[in-house]
Amino acid sequence: MRIEHDLSRFKQIVRGKIRQNLRKYVTHGELIGRKGRELVSIPLPQLDVPHFRYGKNGSGGVGQGDGEEGTQLGPGGESPGGAGQAGSDPGAHILEVEVSLEELALILGEELELPRIEPKGKPNIEQKKARYSSVRRSGPESLRHFKRTYMEALRRQISSNTYAPDSPRIVPIRDDKRYRAWTETELPEANAVVIYMMDVSGSMTDDQKEIVRTAAFWLDTWLHSQYRGVETRYIIHDAAAKEVDEETFYHTRESGGTRISSAYKVCVDLIAREFPPTDWNIYCFQFSDGDNWGEDNEKSLELLTDALLPQVNLFCYGQVESPYGSGEYIRSLEHAFGDGVSKLIVAEIENKEAVYPCLKRFLGTGV
To answer: Is 132 found in the same domain as 221?
Structure first.
């Protein structure tokens, strides 16, 4: 149908506009507050949907009444427009369209040229669940199927001419009884976990946390497109670390010092307790301003080398620039590992504009 063709064409235009402005959306995080369960509402500037515009009834129209060359058309022959002085700026045509997170991830992958992720271990973790989907002749009385039992008894009595319509009485015998039976079905479970770690010491400001929040939104969007389900965990730390929920992760600020090793310890314990590496694809994203207690660097690097990197698919460290942090930790990582460890990716995020290239660096390995 014509309207379906037009709708398809409109969707192509919308997608083109999103691709054209994707860097802006990534940079300014305009989508984070608009996230729904599966859809995102995106404001698209300079895109106007064609529509009919009607005049007022009884006000005349083309070819009605007297007129001279140069007469302006409008209600009552007056110049169209509202009261007040004319403005100097063009009007804004902003349309909000709903885009699925799956579609958004596809656009992100195309624009950043991201490779498909190749999961390690089992491609999908599955759990077995019993479903009562059949009936059998034997079983415990607690599982007796009363309707099927009644129907079997009624069928037997009718076929043997013992059923009396005037005085119906159905008495099941042993052979009439039917019982519910179960079969085991395999259901897909989440087979990837994303662990976010962030420094919340006094040197991390709200601006740095907003950068982390923006980056995490896009990381989540891409990883959810690659796996059937994704578990997410959050760890915050200053001199001590703990696992928290998402709200606490983004809105906590401490005033103590910084020990990055404390976050690594909590992460290692979390993996050992809930996410065995043989069954789970593990992605760790750490964000910090690079400030770390000097004597803790050696301990942090040891934990990263011996306990974390051997177990994860990918470990990404993003260093956000802060007016208070020293920024030295990324240098320690580069000195210790160089380019010799494919699982470890580091990136400096000076400002919001740096989120876009950071995503490409983090997700461009396809692991």
So the answer is: no
Pairing relationship of beta strands 192-199 and 230-237 according to DSSP bridges:
parallel
210 & 101 share domain: no
252-258: long-range contacts (C-beta < 8 A, 24 or more apart)?
252/200, 253/200, 253/202, 253/204, 253/206, 254/200, 254/201, 254/202, 255/201, 255/202, 256/201, 256/202, 257/201, 257/293, 258/199, 258/201, 258/203, 258/288, 258/291, 258/292, 258/293, 258/296
Same domain, 332 and 317: yes
Q: Is residue 278 part of a domain?
A: yes
Q: Please tell me the distance from the alpha carbon of residue 176 to that of residue 337, in angstroms, as a whole number.
A: 73
Kindly state whether residues 176 and 319 are assigned to the same domain.
no
Rounded distance between C-alpha atoms, residue 67 and residue 101, angstroms: 55
In one-letter notation, the amino acid at residue 3 is: I
pLDDT in tens, 109-151: 888 878 767 666 554 445 555 677 788 888 888 888 888 898 9
What tens digit of pLDDT does each residue of 203-256 get? 788 888 888 888 888 888 888 888 877 899 999 999 899 999 988 888 887 777
Give the residue numbers spanning the domain of 235: 192-363
- The single residue listed with the structure tokens 């984070």 is 32
Q: Kindly provide the b/e burial profile for residues 146-169, where b requires at least 16 CB atoms within 10 angstroms of the residue's own CB.
A: eeebeebbeebbeeeeebeeeeee
